[in-house]
Amino acid sequence: MVIPFTKLFMVLVLFSTGLLSCAEFKNAGRTIGHTTRNVTREIGHGTRDAAKDIGHGTKRELQAIGQGAKEAVKPLSDDEQ
Fold it and tell me: Above 80 in pLDDT, residue 81?
């Protein structure tokens, strides 16, 4: 009679320990997942901002080149001939 109660007690102890360890694993997984998500988001935003800055700088340079080209091919007026 004592042996079945001992077995039952051991099973309950192991089951309780398993539940506690599952909660720890779940918490660790959540922490890792959220940290990965946040880091990835920051990398993405940094990349987006860098690409925007490069794009705006390129646009300004191309506009300057275009303006210079327009001035270079501008027809001469009657006063300049």
Answer: no
